[in-house]
Each structure stands twice: as structure tokens, then as C-alpha cells.
């Protein structure tokens, strides 16, 4: 937050909001520059303890000072949450982290077309997230810069030019951490089956994922080439990859992500009716 001193309001102060608030505070934003509406007392107490922010239990005139409003409630409660916010924030830029809800519905519910939709992921909690962003036509270059300043505090980001591509981002990186955890579970289970302790197997699995990811990020080679470098002809990796191919794991994985994309689209259809 360098060149300006914006005021940011969060509607919903749960996991995703906390990940972003943590990033903003680490970058030097003051708690006084942040307003949070959070009706759940226990979550509000956590915001006070972690960040020194006293959340409002309900929307009110204090929201009018926000130049940016970040929507971080569950999609199911959005329209109910939006009604009391709208009268105070029509002049603000709005950023939604909610899965599924499309910009046409958001614009209608918040009373302005200055809306950016994004899809972050949970590694944002440790500053290593990646977020896909989509801007409505009324969003200005300065608006985009403000959004980038905020999202950068949680990790990487990229803009997509078509809103439907956010469904692909959701299927890939939004839900993606769960796929990695699923693999970690399977690798740990297999390691335990081979006689390692659960702790040993889990440490090996996590370090392998982060190490291989760092290697891929640092390398100009394709993942295919990196994989081939691990795979000696007739060796152990060859045996494992052949077994994965014989079981159709890659095709199943593609199918799983397609199911996530379809579900993202369905959520948009469902909440668009509200
Ligand atoms: N968890 C994930 O991996 C990802 C989640 N998202 C999206 O982020 C959004 C928030 O998710 P989480 O932070 O995980 O949920 P969460 O349940 O931790 O946070 C939502 C918060 O909204 C509060 N709330 C409920 N009704 C409200 C109202 N009327 N006004 C203001 N606040 C209200 C709740 O008390 C809760 O603290 C969801 O829309 C989800 O689709 C997006 C990307 C990834
Ligand atoms: O599973 C979900 O619907 C949300 C969106 C991306 C991650 N979690």
C-alpha cells in the first residue's frame, strides 16, 4: 500500500478475508484503514486478537469511508448480506472473492458496475496464493492497480479476459490445493504401508511437493522434461508412472477438473437467479 492510503471494507471476516487482511497488515496497512462487517462474535473476537480490528456486527454508515469493498461471505448469503451494505457503498470499487456469483448479479446487488471478481486459493493464508482476476468494463486502470496492490499481499495473480475463464481458474487453482492434499494423503498412506511412520511419510511427501514445485518454478524446462529426468529406463519411477498410466490416472484427473468447472458454472446459474 504505497502511493495512496485507501480505506478497505470487508463484508465477512472469515478465512479468506483474514488471509487478505493478514497480507495487508504485513505490508504496513493500519487497522484503522480497515473496516470489517462480521456478525459472528467468535470470528469478530479473532479479528480483534489477530489484527487489532473491531469488526462491526452489521453494515452501517461507517462503510461509506471505504474506497474498496471486498466481498468475502459465502455465496449463499450474498444477496442477504448485500442489501444493508448497498446504500453506503455505491461510490466504491467492489472486489468479490465469492465462488460462482457472476458480475452481472454482483453489479445488480451492489448498485454499481465498478466490480472486479476474483478467485484466490487458501495458500493465500501463508502469502503463497494465486488469484485469477476479472474486471467489468467500467473498472478503470487505477481501480485495477488498487486491486493488484491488495491481492499482491497474498501471493501471485493473473487477469483473465473472459469471465467464464474464472470457472477454469476455480477448477484449477481455487480447488487445486485440495488436489495436492489428496495426493499428500495417498503418498503418506502408501509410505505407512511400506513401514515408514506417519510422520516420516508425511514429511517426505510434503517436502517432495514443495521441492518439485520450486524446481518447476525455477526451471525453463517443461514438466514433461523434468519428469523424464527422474525416470530412468527400467527403473523405479518408470514402474510407478507406467502403473499410473495403466490405471488411467491422468485422464481421471482431467475429468475431475472438468467436474469442478461444471460445478462452478452451476453455482453461477444458481446464484444468478437471486
Ligand atoms: N476456502 C477457499 O478455498 C476459497 C473460498 N472462496 C470464497 O471465499 C468466500 C468466503 O469463504 P471463507 O472465508 O472460506 O468462508 P468463512 O465462512 O470463513 O467466512 C465467511 C464469513 O462471513 C460471515 N457472514 C455471514 N453472514 C454475513 C453477513 N450477512 N454479513 C457479513 N458477514 C457475514 C460469517 O460469519 C463468516 O465469518 C466464499 O464465497 C468462497 O466461495 C474463494 C476461493 C477459495
Ligand atoms: O469448493 C469451493 O466451492 C470453493 C471454491 C474454490 C475453493 N473452494
From TrEMBL:
One of its GO terms (molecular function) is pyrroline-5-carboxylate reductase activity. One of its GO terms (cellular component) is cytoplasm. It catalyses: L-proline + NAD(+) = (S)-1-pyrroline-5-carboxylate + NADH + 2 H(+); L-proline + NADP(+) = (S)-1-pyrroline-5-carboxylate + NADPH + 2 H(+). Its main location: cytoplasm. Transmembrane segments: none annotated. Pathway: Amino-acid biosynthesis; L-proline biosynthesis; L-proline from L-glutamate 5-semialdehyde: step 1/1. Pfam families: F420_oxidored, P5CR_dimer. Coiled coil: none annotated. Belongs to the pyrroline-5-carboxylate reductase family. Catalyzes the reduction of 1-pyrroline-5-carboxylate (PCA) to L-proline. This is Pyrroline-5-carboxylate reductase. The lineage of its organism: Bacteria, Pseudomonadati, Pseudomonadota, Betaproteobacteria, Burkholderiales. The gene is proC.
Amino acid at each position: 500500500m504505497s502511493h495512496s492510503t485507501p480505506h478497505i471494507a470487508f463484508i465477512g471476516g472469515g478465512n479468506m478475508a483474514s488471509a487478505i487482511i493478514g497480507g495487508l497488515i504485513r505490508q504496513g496497512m493500519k487497522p484503522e484503514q480497515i473496516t470489517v462487517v462480521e456478525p459472528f462474535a467468535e470470528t469478530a473476537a479473532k479479528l480483534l486478537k489477530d489484527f487489532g480490528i473491531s469488526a462491526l456486527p452489521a453494515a452501517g454508515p461507517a462503510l461509506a469511508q471505504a474506497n474498496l469493498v471486498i466481498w468475502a461471505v459465502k455465496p449463499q448469503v450474498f444477496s442477504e448480506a448485500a442489501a444493508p451494505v448497498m446504500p453506503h457503498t455505491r461510490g466504491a470499487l467492489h472486489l468479490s472473492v465469492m465462488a460462482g456469483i457472476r458480475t452481472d448479479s454482483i453489479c445488480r446487488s451492489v448498485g454499481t458496475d465498478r466490480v472486479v471478481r476474483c478467485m484466490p486459493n487458501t495458500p493465500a493464508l501463508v502469502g503463497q496464493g494465486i488469484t485469477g482476476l476479472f474486471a467489468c468494463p467500467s473498472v478503470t486502470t487505477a481501480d485495477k492497480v488498487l486491486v493488484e496492490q491488495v491481492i499482491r499481499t497474498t501471493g501471485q495473480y493473473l487477469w483473465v479476459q473472459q469471465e467464464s475463464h474464472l470457472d477454469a481458474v476455480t477448477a484449477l487453482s481455487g480447488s487445486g490445493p485440495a488436489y495436492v492434499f489428496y495426493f499428500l494423503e495417498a503418498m503418506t498412506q502408501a509410505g505407512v504401508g511400506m513401514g515408514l511412520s506417519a510422520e516420516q511419510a508425511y514429511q517426505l511427501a510434503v517436502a517432495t511437493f514443495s521441492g518439485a514445485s520450486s524446481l518447476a518454478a525455477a526451471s525453463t524446462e517443461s514438466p514433461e522434461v523434468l519428469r523424464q529426468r527422474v525416470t530412468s529406463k527400467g527403473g523405479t519411477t518408470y514402474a510407478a508412472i507406467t502403473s499410473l498410466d495403466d490405471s488411467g490416472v491422468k485422464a481421471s484427473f482431467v475429468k475431475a477438473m472438468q467436474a469442478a468447472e461444471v460445478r462452478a458454472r452451476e453455482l453461477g446459474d444458481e446464484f444468478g437467479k437471486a
